[in-house]
Structures are given as structure tokens and as C-alpha cells.
Design goal:
The protein is an alpha+beta fold. The chain contains 17 helices and 24 strands.
Length: 585
């Protein structure tokens, strides 16, 4: 028998009545009724009610114990007089015969039971207490189950798990590195990996064929609601002799199964997931991370405003600006104030305002007065607007209008309650531009990932306008959140040198910065492709948590500080001397 317990606090049922048992755990609740004292004893597995009679000498032993004290209780299992159907152990209780106090708790700085109203800084300082709260505790357990299922599914598909280095060289991922000084190599630094990108590609060159890893990644980025500062975890995978379609099949099976299993009643997009080209996504949804729970589609209205009669937008179109339209179904009867709020928002964002036409009971409001009868009929047909609907119009420069229209699309969807909030809508965004133009200098730059294979290979690089070249790059998106990025990799030194040359880098830059990878490719590299779904964001979505911190065991705060462990902190003079570092702030 275990020294501390015969059963867990979530294990006992009616069939155990009459048995003598020993439990151990935390005092979850304590209710002193004078002649009786009830203690709800909690451990990782559940809660069991324990009863103390005032006539027992145990009463004095427990009366001053605070909640969250750790105790052991020996007693007999008895039928509970008032059954609690909301608890798995609600049919029984323990008649206490012995109590062992393992650790008495001080007054709690944050509450474990009930509503959590403490400020974030206090919760993070005492994260070990915050993790005892049922909701957060269960969040972490779900995360464990998701990771376990991911591992099972990857093994099932013939992948092996390998561990890549944590101390490495600076990465080309694009974010800031975390640097680690080298004691044995004065003045030099390691970098923590932003991702195992180069190592997993080298594994393919080494002939390992199918790799995956639950990989820690380190990026010195500012925090967001869906991004933790410092570190995150991803399901990193790579496969040899693989096309984009091969990666899609693996990820759709893995992520599709995970979402189906843990969706908790929500509907899930089934494989194959819809594929949306990048440019189409930017036009129709105003984002390369479209939330498909919102049914609204953005339309290009630039041609419509060609001598339409509404001079403001006719002038914008003539000046080279783009006009976008968003149909708002069943909004035709909304009051003027509904439309004025969107107009005011557009002005606040420097977009000059927002126009609308609302159809209701045969009447047309808004800018309809500027249009002829024929133009109104054209409007209805072009934008699929019926009586009772409305349509918003907005205009601006090409570089800003899509993103602005995407924001407005979601605002309208929320205002009209159009989102299907009981679903997970997954899609692939494909055909990203390989290059983009720097708005300030006009120079050609990589737009997404310089190590992707350009569609058309070397011929495209040599014959096409760089801004017209697409890449075999793709993102997995769910409910407006980017879950994964991936690509077919460029495994040809000749193509890689040429791709970097177009972006303004000569061969020596490639050799110096990415020498390990380019050298490996010169000794026989298989075509390979991969992807990396984020684990933190996946769990965050499954739990419908608005803040990623609540699905991570020990997160940093908004200033990238660990308040519990007091990190980062200063180093001693001796440590700095060993590392050959002098601090000058």
C-alpha cells in the first residue's frame, strides 16, 4: 500500500462503502456547522467530502487548519446523506478516524476556489496557486492530452521524433534572437532557436525521411493575446520526397483529428480543408488569416464607381484608389445611427469615412440618391443585395484598403451577430507572393520565407517579374488565427543563390549566413517540405481562451518577466567575469 493513500480523491464510489481508506490532498473547502465539520479534500484527480464529528478529538486538530493545507485522512467510506450528482464522488463521504497534517497553509495571497478577481501580476507571482484553480488545472491537462494525441497521430503516419539543439547559431526566422554568451569562446554567443528550421532540413539531407518534434521555440517578441513572449511550442514536422499536397494530408489528418476529438460539441471543418490563394484571401476577407465563421465577403467595387454619380468615390477610383463593398444582410431597416458608427470609425482610422446604401420596404437610403434607377439596379445585381439588405462602401490606397475592409467585415459580422461561434473553420492559405516591394525604397524583398521553393523554379526566377512569382508557402488558419506556417523547401543551391540575388544578396552573403544549409544541399538533398502547427494557439482555440497565458504552465507577463522566479535578473560580477562581459547601460 502507498504510504500516503489507498485511493485518490476522485476514485471512490458507492461500491467502496464500508471500506477503510486513506486519502491525501489539499483542503479545498471547509464548513464548520458546530457539531459537524465538512472538509472537501482535493487532489489532482478529484474531490471527496470528509466528515468530522465534534465529539472526536480530531475536531481540535482541524479547526484551525486553513484551506489549501495538505493533509491525510484515514476513515471509512459511508453513503452520503445528501447525494451530490455534480460530483463523481457525490454518492459517498469519508467518516474521518485519523488526520495527518503534512503541510499547514498560510493565508492565501490569491484565492484558489471561486471567481478569480486578482490582478494578473499577483496571479503570475503565485502561479503555483493559480494552477490549482480547477479551470487552469484542466486547461493544462487538456494541453497534455492534445500533445499526446499529436504524437500518436504522427507516429501512426510513419514519423519519428528527434530532438534538435537548443544552443545554436542565430536564425534567419526574422524575429529577435535570445543570445547566450559562451564562456569557452570569449566574445561569442549562441542563440536559442527561433525554430528548428535548418536542423530539420538537415535531417532530411541526412536521410531520416520523416521527422517531427514537440519543439520549444524562442523569440524575443512583444506579447499579444495569442502570442506569449519568450517561448512557445509547436508540432514541428518535415518530410522528404514530399509535395505541398503530401504535407496537407499529414496535417489535415493530425490537426483534423485533434480538433474533432477535443471540439467539445463544436462543428469542425472536415478534410480536405478549403484552399484559398493569398491574393483572393486579401480581397475577399481583407486578411491572410480569415475568420470563416463570418459569412461576409468583400467585393471589389472600383469599376462600379466609374461615373456612378457619387462624386466622392468616382474621384477616388479615377485617382487610382480602390473601392470595396461589403453586403450587410438584413441591415436595411437599421437606424441611421447604426451606419453613422461605421462612418465615424472610418474617419478615426484616416479613411475619410464610409458610405452605404440601405434598402427597406422598397426605399433606398444613404448615397442611393446619387444613383440613377439603372445604377441602383446594377448595384443590387453586382453585390447580390435584396430588399431588406444594406451595402457598405469604403475606399483607399491599394496598400491599406484590403486590411481596413477586413477589419470592417468583422465589425459588421459582430454587429449583426453573423459569426457561427459554435464551430472551428479551418482553411489553407496558399500561393503567397515570393517577393514584395519595399514601400519606402522600392527594392524587391522576400515577402514571407526566403527558403521556400518558388513556383516555376529557376525558370520563373530568370524570366518573370519578381513581384509576380508565387511560392510554395502555406498557412493553416482556424477562426482567424494562424495555426501553422509551412512550405515546400528550396533544396537547390542554384535556385537559392538566384533567389537571394534577386533580393539583393550576393553568393558570399548566402555562404556566410546559411553556410551549413547551402553546403549540405551541395552533397545531395532530397525534395522536402514541412509545416509547424502551434501547440499553444491550438489549445487556446479549443478551450476558447482569449489569452494564451491561461494554457501555459508558467508564462511570462507582458514585460517578458517571470514574477515567480524573478527572471530576468542581474548576474553577479563573478559570472560576468567568467563570460568576459562588462555591463554598460
Amino acid at each position: 500500500m502507498n504510504e500516503y493513500r489507498t485511493h485518490t480523491c476522485g476514485e471512490l464510489r458507492a461500491e467502496h462503502i464500508g471500506q477503510k481508506v486513506k486519502l491525501a490532498g489539499w483542503i479545498h473547502r471547509k464548513r464548520n456547522l458546530g457539531n459537524l465539520c465538512f472538509i472537501d479534500l482535493r487532489d489532482h484527480y478529484g474531490i471527496t467530502q470528509c466528515v468530522f464529528d465534534s465529539s472526536s478529538d480530531l475536531f481540535d486538530k482541524i479547526k484551525d487548519l486553513r484551506v489549501e493545507s495538505v493533509i491525510g485522512i484515514v476513515g471509512k467510506v459511508a453513503a452520503r446523506e445528501s447525494v451530490n450528482k455534480n460530483m463523481p464522488t457525490g454518492d459517498i463521504e469519508i467518516k474521518a478516524e485519523e488526520v495527518i497534517v503534512y503541510s499547514a497553509a498560510d493565508v492565501l495571497p490569491v484565492q484558489v476556489v471561486g471567481e478569480c478577481n486578482e490582478p494578473e501580476e499577483l496571479r503570475l507571482k503565485y502561479r503555483f496557486l493559480d494552477l490549482r484553480r480547477e479551470k487552469i488545472h484542466n486547461n493544462i491537462l487538456l494541453r497534455c492530452k492534445v500533445i499526446s494525441e499529436m504524437r500518436r497521430l504522427m507516429h501512426e503516419q510513419g514519423f519519428n521524433e528527434y530532438q534538435t539543439p537548443i544552443l545554436t547559431a542565430s536564425s534567419p526566422e526574422g524575429a529577435r534572437d535570445f543570445l547566450v554568451p559562451s564562456r569557452l569562446n570569449p566574445g561569442k554567443f549562441y542563440a536559442l532557436p527561433q525554430a528548428p528550421q535548418q536542423f530539420k532540413q538537415l535531417l532530411m539531407v541526412s536521410g531520416f525521411d520523416r521527422y517531427f518534434q514537440i519543439a520549444p521555440c524562442f523569440r524575443d517578441e512583444d506579447p499579444r493575446a495569442d502570442r506569449s513572449p519568450g517561448e512557445f511550442y509547436q508540432l514541428d514536422m518535415e518530410m522528404s520526397f514530399a509535395t505541398q499536397e503530401d504535407v496537407f494530408k499529414v496535417i489535415e489528418h493530425t490537426m483534423g483529428t485533434v480538433f474533432n476529438e477535443f471540439a467539445n460539441g463544436k462543428t469542425v471543418t472536415q478534410a480536405p480543408f478549403i484552399r484559398i490563394p493569398f491574393r483572393e484571401a486579401m480581397l475577399k476577407y481583407g486578411s491572410d488569416k480569415p475568420d470563416l465563421r463570418n459569412p461576409l465577403i468583400i467585393a471589389d467595387a472600383t469599376e462600379f464607381f466609374n461615373n456612378s454619380g457619387f462624386g466622392v468615390y468616382d474621384g477616388k477610383a479615377a485617382a487610382g484608389e480602390q473601392i470595396r463593398a461589403i453586403k450587410a444582410p438584413n441591415a436595411g431597416s437599421k437606424p441611421r445611427s447604426f451606419f453613422d458608427k461605421f462612418d465615424a470609425y472610418a474617419k478615426e482610422q484616416g479613411m475619410g469615412g464610409m458610405a452605404y446604401v440601405a434598402f427597406n420596404n422598397g426605399e433606398a437610403k444613404g448615397i442611393a440618391k446619387f444613383f440613377s434607377t439603372e445604377k441602383l439596379a446594377e448595384l443590387k445585381q453586382k453585390f447580390d443585395v435584396s430588399d431588406g439588405d444594406a451595402v457598405f462602401f469604403m475606399g483607399g490606397a491599394k496598400k491599406v484598403i484590403n486590411k481596413f475592409a477586413g477589419t470592417v467585415r468583422n465589425m459588421i459580422g459582430e454587429a449583426l451577430d453573423l459569426f457561427d461561434k459554435n464551430s472551428f473553420k479551418l482553411c489553407w492559405i496558399v500561393d503567397f507572393p515570393f517577393y514584395e516591394e519595399n514601400e519606402e525604397t522600392g527594392a524587391v524583398e522576400f515577402s514571407h520565407n526566403p527558403f521556400s521553393m518558388p513556383q516555376g523554379g529557376l525558370e520563373a526566377l530568370n524570366t518573370k517579374n519578381p513581384l509576380d512569382i508565387l511560392a510554395y508557402q502555406f498557412d493553416l488558419v482556424c477562426n482567424g488565427v494562424e495555426l501553422a506556417s509551412g512550405a515546400v523547401r528550396n533544396h537547390s543551391p542554384e535556385i537559392m543563390y538566384r533567389a537571394f540575388e534577386i533580393a539583393g544578396y550576393d553568393h558570399s552573403v548566402v555562404d556566410n549566413k546559411f553556410g551549413g544549409l547551402i553546403s549540405a544541399f551541395k552533397f545531395g538533398a532530397p525534395p522536402h517540405a514541412g509545416c509547424a502547427p502551434g501547440i499553444d494557439r491550438t489549445v487556446m482555440l479549443l478551450l476558447d481562451e482569449p489569452i494564451i497565458r491561461d494554457v501555459i504552465l508558467f508564462p511570462l507577463n507582458g514585460k517578458a518577466q517571470d514574477l515567480m522566479m524573478q527572471a530576468p535578473n542581474t548576474a553577479t560580477a563573478e559570472q560576468l567575469k567568467e563570460l568576459h562581459i562588462e555591463i554598460k547601460l
